[in-house]
Amino acid sequence: MNSVKPRILYAEDEADIASIVTDYLHHAGYEVEHFADGSQALAAAIARPPALAILDLMLPGTDGLTILRECRARQLCPVICLTAKVEEVDRLIGLEMGADDYICKPFSPRELIARVKVVLRRNQVGEAIASGAAVSDWRLDDATCQASWRGQDLGLTRREYTLLSILHRHPGKIYPRSQLLDLAYADALEVSDRAIDSHIKNLRKKLRVVLGEDAECIRSVYGVGFAFEA
Fold this sequence. Notes:
This protein is α/β, with parallel strands linked by helices. It has helices spanning 15-27, 38-47, 64-74, 88-96, 109-131, 158-169, 177-184, 193-211, and strands spanning 7-11, 31-35, 52-56, 79-83, 101-104, 138-141, 146-149, 152-153, 175-176, 218-221, 225-228.
């Protein structure tokens, strides 16, 4: 029986690049919807959310960052950004807005395919964890804000639990500090980045007590934020 091919929405206005990337994606076993106009791509993503969106940032109509912002606000799909911009600030803007990955042109189509596979696999793991379908050493109970590993309670505060729950839901996904502030401190009037760093520091200490001194489940991404490594 044939399995359903993951559907990828690809927004790129440079015809030569679009043709090559589309061929590689098809060859890798994906269904592809290509759009040269950003407004059409956004409308299609909202009407029929894909498994993944690959967005060039410099698009006619609606630009890629706006599409990324809508994908995140509506929780449509994971996003990989493609752009000719090479400045670090441009990459950070994309990541802080919630991009799952970021590739600068020129790039290898094979590298893009590899990153597509990683992002899709990461998203599948995250969905399984969120739905409770994954068999895991971790147990997180949102009702009681209690987390345990192999039956051992971690003894977390409510804020520490919230941060762990957010990071744990999508292993490998990099969460910028600004996004963690929005998600974990929505009830606080004024909170600085230092609050995130302080709680992450305490969370790491408690994780090491249970998992071992060499365990480093929460990875720091310099200048950006944090990611959970299962």
